[in-house]
Amino acid sequence: MDDYGYLNARIRAMNGELFQEAVLLDLLAQAELTQMTDSLLSSPYGEDLSLALTGGNGLGAIERALRRNLQRTFRKVLRMCGGEPYRLTSILLSNWDVFNIKTVLRGKQRDLPQEEILSALIPIGELDEAKLSELTRQDHVKAVVDTLATWGSPFATPLTQAFPEYLEKRQLSILEKTLDEFYFKWALSQTAHEAENEQLVRTIIREQIDYLNVVSALKIVSGREKVKAVFIPGGFLSLSFLNSLCQCKSPGEVLDILGKTGLVPPWEKELLAWKEQPQTSDIQRLLEASFMQKWAGMIRKDPLSISIILGFLGRKFNEFVNLRIIARGKAHGVPVDTIRGELVFV
Fold first, then answer.
1. How far apart are CA 263 and CA 257, in angstroms?
2. What DSSP string describes 219-282?
3. DSSP H helical segments within the chain, as ranges?
4. Mean pLDDT, to the nearest integer, of 163-192?
5. Contact 58, 32 (CB under 8 A)
6. What is the pLDDT of residues 238-280, one digit of tens each?
7. Helices 156-169 & 172-189, crossing angle to 10 degrees?
8. Interatomic CA distance for residues 330 and 338, integer angstroms
């Protein structure tokens, strides 16, 4: 279906079912996780949570319900689409396959329990929950790569090519960078035309690249990574500019440069806020928050373009993240004010 007017009218109706800020704050104010469970059972999450509770209760059930609901919603949007909107939306959602594969690879390298890896996955790409569960059952990193190859996954080829270097250096970042570069090169090649809708998707992709590159630079400067930075090409920020960031003596200096240069990312205010209150803010979460606000804000753009679909997906994903933050915070006894500071409202 290429009729954006009709399609977007249906998407707007789905958008009306999303939780408003007041609902999230009510959930946050509830003293016990069991109260949150009861509230979700009488919400649009009720069907998913009822099914999840058959496999156990508590945080695990809520997280299973949230993942299932997110997957069902994104699949529903794709089924409603056709032609150009389906193609462009699928390109964007494929990035979650990359995220999930990287998450499984990290879990296998650290020998984490299967359930812990599963809880970190977001099954909204081509790899559904069943396939992701199969990946988490593999014994080691090579077995994950081999399983992807068996399925004919396009991500198996770059991983297989990079695997000898990974074996030699035992640095998982080699495989992670390979996946990122493969996906973004492909995604940019699929959105290279000047048509408005392709450019809207391309903008999100390029901003994702900038986000990952700035985070990489900050990790180098802060000493969290000792290897030489390898940036992903294709973003709005040039590679020479990103390399210059790595020469800074502190994260604060990085933020100063980002605040003064003409090549300022869209998250300038968040970066500078982190500089002023580094003890209470997490830089990566701030970057994620600003990117999410920009993505979700697309729902207010041209009603006859793909922006409504993209904006809804951003808002739905943000709701998923907020609910997961609240549930995890309650389960682990995190103070309400601390949880509140992690939430992002769009």
1. 9
2. HHHHTS--SPP-PPTTSSS-HHHHHHHTT-SSHHHHHHHHHHSSS--TTHHHHHHHHH-TTT--
3. 4-15, 21-29, 33-41, 46-53, 59-80, 83-109, 114-119, 129-136, 141-150, 156-169, 172-189, 196-222, 239-245, 251-260, 268-276, 283-296, 307-331, 336-342
4. 93
5. no
6. 888 899 888 888 777 777 777 666 444 445 555 555 555 543 3
7. 150
8. 11
**Cα–Cα distance, 269 to 275 (Å, whole number):** 10
Q: 181 and 208 in contact (C-beta within 8 Å)?
A: no
Q: What is the pLDDT of residues 65-120, one digit of tens each?
A: 999 999 999 999 999 998 999 999 999 999 999 999 999 999 999 999 998 998 88
- Locate 59 and state its tokens: 């945080």
Q: Per-residue pLDDT tens for 20-55?
A: 999 999 999 998 999 999 999 999 999 999 999 998
Tell me the one-letter amino acid at 57: N
What is the widest separation between alpha-carbon atoms in the chain?
A: 55
Which residue reads 């690879």 in tokens?
A: 105
Residue bearing tokens 């809804």: 312
Burial 115-144 (b: 16+ CB within 10 A, else e): eebbbbbbbbbbbeeebbeebbebeebeeb
> Distance between CA 285 and CA 135 in Å, rounded?
27
Tokens of 173: 């970042």
The CA distance from 313 to 307, in Å, is 10
CB burial string 228-262: b at 16+ within 10 A, e below: ebebbebbebeeebbeebbebeebeebbebbeeee
